[in-house]
Amino acid sequence: MKLSMRQLSQSFTQLANQFVTVQGWIRTNRSQKEFGFISFNDGSTLATLQIVYDRSLPNFDEVAKWRVGCSLTITGKVVLTPQNKQAYELKAETMILEGDSPEDFPIQPKRHSKEFLREQAHLRPRTNLFNAVFRVRSLLAFAIHEFFRSRDFLYVHAPIITASDAEGAGEMFHVTTLDLNKLPRLADGSIDYTKDFFGKKTNLTVSGQLEAETFAQAFKNVYTFGPTFRAENSNTPRHASEFWMIEPEMAFADLEDDMKLVEDMIKYVINYILKHAKEELAFFDQFVAPGKLMQLQSLVDSHIFRCEYAEAIKILEKQNHLFENKIKYGDDLATEHEKYLTDVHFKAPVFVINWPKEIKAFYMRLNDDGKTVAAMDLLVPGSGELVGGSQREERYEMLMKKMIDQKIPVSEMEWYLDLRKYGGTKHSGFGLGFERLVMYVTGVDNIRDVLPFPRTPKNCEF
Ligand code: 4AD
Ligand code: MG
After folding, report:
1. Residue 71's pLDDT band (boundaries 50, 70, 90)?
2. Host H or E run for residue 130
3. How far apart are CA 89 and CA 68, in angstroms?
4. Which of 164, 207, 392 should be mutated for ligand 1, with most atoms under 8 A from CB?
5. How many Cα atoms sit within 13 Å of 261 on the Cβ side?
6. Whose atoms come closest to the Cα of 433: which ligand?
7. CA 272 from centroid of its chain's CA atoms
8. Cα separation, 451 vs 160, whole angstroms
9. Model's pTM, two decimal places?
10. pLDDT exceeds cutoff 90 at 318
11. Using one digit for the tens of pLDDT, what is the confidence trace for 349-374?
């Protein structure tokens, strides 16, 4: 019977003294004259399985030489070992070498730096840390879909190639089939995009929000969950050029409804991980971020604070002596300010709400004070800004004015304005950076270590 190591760990008592087949990779092999031990892993759990072999194997002398990284198929008897650290082991009956691994296999059984492992991104999933990170990443994605499905949200796939800049920040990767060495030009010297593949200038999406808004005006509650791309030149532990974003959008919802959804969703997925990734969380709590388990538990048990932007600025201004960037009303928060709010002042996640309109995107709804917009950022310890969201400007004239003020090309966005013309409703939504969530849950402090193959400025390996 072929089993994954996870299946075996769940039913080893029933399988005592029975023969099973497992397939995986050698983590370590300690051989002696008459017997040996292999620590074995197949990626289905963090724990390794101990394989015991001895001279009764016809190929004992070869097995004794197999190195770290070799892939094997092993059939053996499940032996209960209640007196040992591991409650069971496998006594090998046949061992087949599937793929040999020479001495220079880079992932040796010792501590490797995360920087070194980034250069081995194709092999690092075979380490404990990345094994745990990517299983939690997969479980989190599943939990997010489960949460939205349980609430009847429609999952909508926003396009990857678009002609609009959803954030209006101009941080886009262009998509073109034009020959960069022979660009077609107009009379004034500018590039003639009518000759390009789509007949116009196009780029990779920075956000699926605008498309999600159109679907919310038909299905009421929707979400996107897909890759997004930003050509911002920020080399920080929290920014990637390609990252995944979850963007719900709700018709008939205001900013308060929006924050309630963030809070419910985060608690749901963390509860899911507390239940389904106990082994991994124990690992992170012990080796990556001591106290993580308690932090996650306390988040699900408490109400997330809300703080007006103006209030946050007052709190921070008093501490300006601590900051490299002195802050005042009207400024965006830098990492050090976010950190002060979450790690020192609130000692917990916090929603910062009602931001000055000048520092937020064009689509956010203007508050009655005429100065701020109904926007919220959720800041969390360690990952900084985890969520950015807002109530959307549903008033046609107001939106048009905002677009003109912020130099958003109205001609490209007629369809977006149409939503305000034909049965538009008040509506709200947010974007949650999936990698920042994985960082928060695992305690891993660099975005490059929660993306399978990170893309950052000057780096597109693998
Ligand atoms: O705050 P942002 O730019 O908001 C939007 O894109 C809106 N359209 C969302 C919406 O309302 N539907 O991005 C949302 C979140 C951030 O809070 C952050 O978690 C993440 O996306 N994010 C990044 N994550 C990794 N690398 C980057 N370069 C990121 N930029 C934003
Ligand atoms: Mg933001």
Report:
1. very high
2. helix 128-150
3. 19
4. 207
5. 33
6. 1
7. 16
8. 19
9. 0.96
10. yes
11. 999 999 999 999 999 999 999 999 99
